[in-house]
Amino acid sequence: MEKKILAADIAKDYFMAFRWGNVYKEVFSNFGVVFCMVNPLIQYMIIYKGAQELWFNFLAVYLPFVFIMVSVSLHPVKLHKMMYLCPVSAEGRMTCVRKAYCFRIAVQMSVVSIGMAVLLPAFEGSVLALVAIFLNDLVLSILITAVERTDDKAEDNGREFAQEEVYKALMTGIAVLVIFLQMMMICEPEPDMTGDLIILGMTVFVQIPLMIRYRKYVREALAAAAYYEKAG
To answer: Residues with Cβ < 8 Å from 83, sequence gap 6 or more?
Structure first.
């Protein structure tokens, strides 16, 4: 009899990944992830001298960003080894992987929504700024931890892996730049419509096209994760 994978199992696996040992291994030992998370904080301390009256706005945007970076790092698109030994069909495993990926995005964007809800009462900027924040975090949320697959097309897989890493680096780098610009906008005493339009333009004309192209790698990773030999 095929084992039925419940939503509760997916949720449990997601939150179990936040063990300290796992966080240290996958996040704090990764220089790129740490740099992306710490850089906006350092820039804020330099530019605004750690102004206490701006901390509230800053943290409402910064903390969800950090959570997304940690969550993406802790949840590669693959199942636990025991799941490949359970009596579950490849189609069932693929469904489980997709649900886990969608659940991860839903949790991350829920945290973003909470941050925006906290920011809203004290926010004096435009709606465009809030839209840009939401879209930027959505772009970050779809990222996956790249896994080099090990089937018989080694050369093609190596090239695909390199391309995936390039797209991921571009999307992450631009997102970090945008999140920094957003933090500057929300910390300014007066709304800046021009700045908001520039940030929204970067999101719509640069980040979203990259995200659409990156979907190819996400689909391939989700399909490969159904098979132990290809999951990496």
So the answer is: 93, 96
Cβ–Cβ under 8 Å, residues 165 and 96: no
pLDDT band of residue 152 (cuts 50, 70, 90) is very low
Percent of the chain predicted with pLDDT > 90: 22
203 and 178 Cβ atoms separated by less than 8 Å: yes
Exposure string (b/e) for 196-211, b if CB count within 10 Å is 16 or more? beebbebbeeebeeeb
CB 184 within 8 A of CB 199: no
* Range 128-143 burial, b when 16+ CB lie within 10 A, else e: bbbebbbbbbbbbbbb
Q: Do the beta carbons of residue 126 and residue 196 sit within 8 Å?
A: yes
Task: Work out the pLDDT band at 73, boundaries 50, 70, 90.
Answer: very high
Q: How far apart are CA 100 and CA 71, in angstroms?
A: 12
Q: What pTM was computed for the model?
A: 0.85
d(CA 222, CA 78): 8
In 3D space, the residue among 103, 126, 106 whose CA is nearest the CA of residue 114 turns out to be 106
